[in-house]
Specification:
Helix content of chain A: 40-55%
Largest interface: A-B, 51 and 45 residues
Radius of gyration of chain A: 21 Å
Shape of chain A: globular
Shape of chain B: globular
Structural class of chain B: alpha+beta
Number of domains of chain A: 1
CATH architecture of chain A: 3-Layer(aba) Sandwich
Structural class of chain A: alpha/beta
Distance between the termini of chain A: 52 Å
Number of helices of chain A: 11
Order of helices and strands of chain B: EEEEEHHEEHHEH
Distance between the termini of chain B: 25 Å
Order of helices and strands of chain A: HHEHEHEEEEHEHEHEEHEHHH
Number of domains of chain B: 2
Helix content of chain B: 25-40%
Oligomer: heterodimer
CATH class of the largest domain in chain B: Mainly Alpha
Number of strands of chain A: 11
CATH superfamily of chain A: P-loop containing nucleotide triphosphate hydrolases
Largest sheet of chain B: 3 strands, antiparallel
CATH superfamily of the largest domain in chain B: Proto-chlorophyllide reductase 57 kD subunit B
Strand order of the largest sheet of chain B: 3-4-5
Strand content of chain B: 15-25%
CATH architecture of the largest domain in chain B: Orthogonal Bundle
Radius of gyration of chain B: 17 Å
CATH topology of the largest domain in chain B: Helicase, Ruva Protein, domain 3
Number of helices of chain B: 5
Chain lengths: ~300, ~150
């Protein structure tokens, strides 16, 4: 039998137009983010290094300095940033411009899966039995895209995006936000964190995502009596990583019992607002936010919007 | 994916979509020349995969709702997660809901109920339907592809 079969594009007429529908989804993200001046992704190759705390501290510090700030919690399975800023959600308003983000007392606009899920409920999707693992990633990518595109962020000077541990979500985000201004990678002292963070930096480089720098969290412990900072590890890993990948170290934050208590109570903004002596952890946080913003501004000039983004 | 009627060498046109159960999606196509019809049955996994892309087989007939994938897909959403508000001035006359339709809407989880109600109301207004009944809801589900709503 010699059937005459033409190609898809020869016969296709506008109908489902699935490629156009996918393109439209991408366009919705671009349109929404058009009024966002800078986008900052916070990532780490390893869980437990305090990435979400760093995201919350940066967002609170940016807002405190008068920047219109958004915080997107892209850690869909372990959302925590809303709680850190004292926002537990009272019902997200569905307005004419989209879903209104929750607002912290310091006016950080927040969108997080924790505002949507039942308390203590794990994120799970309606799916045919025993096969959810196949498309869980696709569902989560769609959710992230909806967080970006459907939230009524308004005009923002900066959007901080808290990524889950590991690298794959950066690739998803960068595909959705090719004009990503910068990525900061959070690390902690010790060999295991260093190796995982090196992989994150390698991934960011492979994707041509602009890396603003490294932040070393848990760099030491602050004495609750005298305020002296004691290093637990020998240290130096962050500097070595930075040199290896040609990125700056933006700052280091030690463990502080006062900040830990504030985080537990959802009072990170209150903690950030109080005055801190030079050299104190509060002062270090402020310097970190300043340094991060400087680096983002530099990257923004280096990679203007509409360019390669990386 | 396109269906070609080989004898006529014509692309078959999308006719209707049905969700007969268990997550199966049936898309019916018709040859515009010889009228031959064929149905494509997507298994539940394929249906879900397409859904996760945020696209609709047969094309979108209503604009995408905000957080459509999240609200339609998350299983453990808070009842009070969203405050849906109907516009103060509807674009056309108000749609009256029959008690049966209200009862059926009540079966929709409150997490997603506001969004679903708005979709049904918009559907009715666009077609000049003044009264929402279960039959109209069934038709809307079929026409709009409201699988899982």
């Amino acid at each position: 039998m010699n059937l005459k079969i033409r190609t898809y594009n020869q016969v296709a007429e506008a109908e489902s137009n699935l490629p156009d529908q996918v393109a439209e989804a991408a366009r919705r993200v671009a349109v929404r983010l058009h009024t966002v001046q800078m986008t900052l992704a916070v990532m780490s190759g390893k869980g437990g290094v305090g990435k979400s705390m760093v995201s919350a501290l940066l967002a609170a510090s940016f807002a405190r300095r008068g920047m219109k700030t958004g915080l997107l919690d892209a850690d869909l399975n372990g959302p925590s940033t809303a709680h850190l800023l004292g926002v537990d959600g009272d019902g997200l308003a569905v307005g004419p411009e989209g879903i209104e983000p929750a607002r912290s007392s310091g006016d950080v606009r927040i969108m997080s899966m924790s505002l949507i899920l039942d308390q203590d409920a794990a994120l799970s999707w309606r799916e045919p039995r025993d096969s959810g693992y196949i498309w869980r990633g696709a569902q989560e990518r769609r959710a992230l895209r909806e967080f970006l595109a459907d939230t009524a962020w308004g005009r923002l000077d900066i959007m901080v995006i808290d990524l889950p541990p590991g690298g794959p979500r950066l690739a998803d985000l960068h595909a959705m936000v090719p004009d990503l201004t910068g990525v900061v990678v959070v690390t902690a002292p010790g060999r295991s964190a260093r190796d995982a963070v090196a992989r994150s930096l390698d991934l960011a480089r492979a994707r041509s995502a602009p890396v603003a720098g490294l932040i070393e969290n848990m760099s030491g412990v602050v004495c609750s009596e005298c305020g002296e900072i004691t290093r637990v590890h020998e240290g130096g890993e962050a500097d070595a990583l930075a040199a290896r990948f040609g990125v700056p170290v933006l700052g280091a934050l030690p463990l502080d019992s006062g900040l830990a208590a504030a985080a537990d109570g959802g009072r990170v903004e209150d903690w950030t607002d109080r005055k801190g002596a030079a050299g104190s952890v509060r002062d270090l946080v402020r310097q970190l936010a300043l340094r991060t913003e400087e680096e983002l501004q530099r990257l923004r000039l280096e990679h203007p919007r509409g360019g390669s983004g990386g | 994916m396109k269906f070609l009627c080989v004898p006529c060498d014509r692309q078959m046109t999308f006719e209707e979509r049905q969700t007969p159960g268990d997550g199966t999606l049936a898309a019916v196509f018709r040859c515009p020349k010889c009228e031959r019809m064929t149905a494509m049955l997507a298994n539940p996994m394929e249906t879900q995969l397409v859904s996760s892309l945020g696209v609709k087989v047969g094309g979108r007939t209503v604009p995408q709702a905000e957080f459509e994938g999240i609200r339609g897909g998350v299983t453990a959403g808070r009842d009070d997660a969203f405050e849906d508000r109907e516009p103060a001035t509807p674009p056309a006359g108000p749609v009256r809901w029959s008690p049966e339709a209200v009862e059926r809407l009540g079966l929709v989880p409150s997490f997603v109920r506001g969004m679903v109600k708005k979709i049904y109301n918009d559907y009715a207004r666009e077609r000049g339907i003044a009264r929402m009944t279960p039959a109209v809801m069934d038709q809307a589900r079929s026409d709009l592809g409201l699988e899982g709503m």
